[in-house]
Amino acid sequence: MSAPAELIVAWTDRFGDAVTTEETAGGLSVGVPADRWLEALAFARDDLACGFFDWLTGVDELGEGFAVVAHVYSLERRHHLLVRTRVPRDAPSLPTATGVYRGAAWHERETAEMFGIGFEGHPNLVPLLLPDGFEGHPLRKDFVLAARVAKPWPGAKEPGESGHGAPSRRRVRPPGVPDEGPWAQVAERRRAAGRPPREGPDA
């Protein structure tokens, strides 16, 4: 029996019809109800030797709510597990997984900040990445980015300028393009057409 098949049997024996399983390229993905989230993570750690916690994040599934996914790995048995559950959109919340995997603390903070998902019992569920006063959760699909107000650059535009409207340096034309005179416009048209300018009155 292959490793994914053995894992499927183990999950089904423990959770019965409450679990869904899907083989992936890297291992096995299992889905459990939200009220059995911590039980599933503890089962992965204790019974399936997945002692290495890799990451945890959220996925906005719009009308279906939010999925919360954790990736764990067994160093002894060399198998990967994606453990996932779903929480409703109107009140997304799960118990914190920090009692099972201490490494989940940072990831839960990030997920709470980016998706607005609560993690009950987290020891320090405070903002992690966004600046103070930031409103909203930017990884939600209904989050709207406010247009930035265009402001003039306060510094100098060119080296040596004071920043108070001094003119920029004189632009130097490419070789072969006269600075002025009747042939300047012809040379510019040749450059616009992708042909190199030529010097002299036959340009």
UniProtKB/TrEMBL annotation:
Residue ranges, annotated region (Disordered): 153-203
Residues of the NADH:ubiquinone oxidoreductase 30kDa subunit domain: 31-148
Cited InterPro entries: NADH_quin_OxRdtase_su_C/D-like, NADH_UbQ_OxRdtase_30kDa_su
Signal peptide location: none
Molecular function GO terms recorded: NADH dehydrogenase (ubiquinone) activity
Amino acid composition bias (Basic and acidic residues), ranges on this chain: 187-203
Assigned protein family: Belongs to the complex I 30 kDa subunit family.
Protein name from the UniProt record: NADH-quinone oxidoreductase subunit C
Species the sequence originates in: Actinomadura physcomitrii
Organism placement in taxonomy: Bacteria, Bacillati, Actinomycetota, Actinomycetes, Streptosporangiales
